[in-house]
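Researcher: Here's my situation. A collaborator sent me these components and asked whether they could plausibly form a single complex. I don't have experimental data yet, so a predicted model of the whole assembly would be a useful starting point for our discussion.
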Amino acid sequence: MIQSQEKPDRVLVRVSDLTVQKADEVVWVRARVHTSRAKGKQCFLVLRQQQFNVQALVAVGDHASKQMVKFAANINKESIIDVEGVVRKVNQKIGSCTQQDVELHVQKIYVISLAEPRLPLQLDDAVRPEVEGEEEGRATVNQDTRLDNRVIDLRTSTSQAVFRLQSGICHLFRETLINKGFVEIQTPKIISAASEGGANVFTVSYFKNNAYLAQSPQLYKQMCICADFEKVFCIGPVFRAEDSNTHRHLTEFVGLDIEMAFNYHYHEVVEEIADTLVQIFKGLQERFQTEIQTVNKQFPCEPFKFLEPTLRLEYCEALAMLREAGIEMGDEEDLSTPNEKLLGRLVKEKYDTDFYILDKYPLAVRPFYTMPDPRNPKQSNSYDMFMRGEEILSGAQRVHDPQLLTERALHHGIDLEKIKAYIDSFRFGAPPHAGGGIGLERVTMLFLGLHNIRQTSLFPRDPKRLTP
Amino acid sequence: MIQSQEKPDRVLVRVSDLTVQKADEVVWVRARVHTSRAKGKQCFLVLRQQQFNVQALVAVGDHASKQMVKFAANINKESIIDVEGVVRKVNQKIGSCTQQDVELHVQKIYVISLAEPRLPLQLDDAVRPEVEGEEEGRATVNQDTRLDNRVIDLRTSTSQAVFRLQSGICHLFRETLINKGFVEIQTPKIISAASEGGANVFTVSYFKNNAYLAQSPQLYKQMCICADFEKVFCIGPVFRAEDSNTHRHLTEFVGLDIEMAFNYHYHEVVEEIADTLVQIFKGLQERFQTEIQTVNKQFPCEPFKFLEPTLRLEYCEALAMLREAGIEMGDEEDLSTPNEKLLGRLVKEKYDTDFYILDKYPLAVRPFYTMPDPRNPKQSNSYDMFMRGEEILSGAQRVHDPQLLTERALHHGIDLEKIKAYIDSFRFGAPPHAGGGIGLERVTMLFLGLHNIRQTSLFPRDPKRLTP
């Protein structure tokens, strides 16, 4: 066991660096035993390091005894080992490894960390495309087994790619916004009153009282706007005590939130948000092509398409498209999930984009703090954004006038006492502002064309799952 | 009220751009009324935008009537207004404004958002240095009044600077780690079992069961290491149900967390963490000098000093220094807060640094998952890091062997059933690894030499405060 006893001079070479350039060099490598196969006086190992792997050969001869070959053959899969070996060019490409042109002729082996003999799931099964599994009758791994054994499931090339790409989304989001002059803020998650009326909120025991988990950072983003930060963003957990067991709902997810003061029109903000998403899509396609292709191997999917500038449709236009497709909907009716998806297909056919903005939602289907449209009292200055026909962002110009906010709250039958602090935030001069919240896991899922949000949350939380 | 009725062509000029280069131009500016003072046929306004302000003059004449001067004089402080005016060079510098060489001769005024007439606190009082206040008997603002009216308190030049710098800390932390090849992860905050034994944990009602708020992302960081991400970081809320009412404890704070697999020695990780902090300190001193100076005006403080490479002392060396200074302490006794501070002063005197690492803590004072020192069974492979004599990071090599982890847990009297999932994470091959967690608010506070952590949390949470 490595207990930091020594600081040896030994350099460990990355598996990804084992190429013909290193041919005939003696190297040390630390990697996992992905597979091992003994064959007479030889043992073939596949050594894996993240998404890379290389073939290693232990053969009875000058550097290895019969015992060593046997020892190598008996190391449990997933154990971490250090091997010393010579890099040898191979005559025939090794199709099953990422390092196809070389193999490692092993001289020494040390076990760094031994895995237990029985693995709860096999990595090869876990990356097998579903269709192939059905067709050939070969095993795949179901969602619960994956999640119950997440530490192993996350080692697959697909999982490694998904979460590296997700890290990239966060990075691109912040990089873009910091370049646009935004300030990052940190908002509290424990709050004294349920922010949006009290439904779907988790209760926390807070010393001798009760408190709640924030369903969104919206109030705090808005307070920062009232405090002159002008353009703010935050990335943090968002909690929804909703008993929804669907492919796209989690009880805890990561919100990428934006709020921004504008000069004259909330479209200034809509454009900034849409451009931020476009910069994310572009950045992913430029910097994460390997990851996208890795995921596509298991989950084939059309590349994500988007326009510049982003397509913006008004709600009434969407209604017309849906009606033309035979859907009956009232002017002030919200989109159902199937209608959202249908609309996504219609928009894709007509405009060839997987990303668009739906603007000017009916006032009746939006929260009380949504600014009404001054030109049409039944509409509002609010918008959703969609990827592959599913909502990833909801936003609006917020009412910044305490008088109008009070009227709107009363109209919605909201107890003014409960939102007093919210309304009071706007009493000492508040700039006009708008914003929105993006669900990180949904963006990852829909960009990659995956079908379950549990694939894009490291440790997902839903009404039935709190572990690991 | 701006309800996004129009998209006018008008350009709003930033207050910070009002310089002699713009002399004699007609400009539109949106800003807050910081002060107004009527004097016969004239009214002087100070217009403020974030940390910048400019003098504006409304005088009876060609462009302004007597009524307009009266109107201007009666606009409540903190209201947001749009003014059109001519930029005029002034003969004598205006000492009370950041834009000292020009003033604005106002031709038109519109109120964009009116503030209520009585402000709960005065911005000028809120930025007055405490000493001056006492000496001259002029008003300052106490902490609770500030926090109760945080939206106004955050508008002060000091608050604007503190939180812009804090945004910079997060940015520098991530920038450095992404350059070092780390992956950002998002860890769940709602967990099924109390991670560190059950004390000081908040309970959440989770549908029909109970759950808890994570006291640290440590288990999840470690699981990501066992899942081959190798180097991970996260920024997120950390919850401690500790009834501590001190200058440096919050019940919810922001953790900057790092975990990393290493090759041979945990000092590889210690060096990466220390270098990350050094890059943050350097970046702040390079990019945030204006903010540092702004905060120093209200809270004077020596510049933050650090060495490269970072000073690393062993615990026994620190004990010797304290004993030489007359402190009586046992070999396996933890540092008290006063002793920490004293040690900080002794280290500063001897080594001229405000930042150092204290390594090799007694095993007895560290959690069960801390790796014992193989050379000395009473010591451990663990470390804290200090800024100006206060702890900002605690970390260690973690036990990655399930057998030893079980032994250590039993030694600490921990119920194995409760940490089964934790121990099981290491059963399928776990690389040696170490890490640590940094408190964001403490880093901000101690870098700036502030004295209360509530000054560096946007909306602080402590046992007595859950609002706003």
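Model: Some features of this prediction you could bring to your collaborator: Chain B touches chain A through 109 residues (CB under 8 Å). The radius of gyration of chain B is 27 Å.
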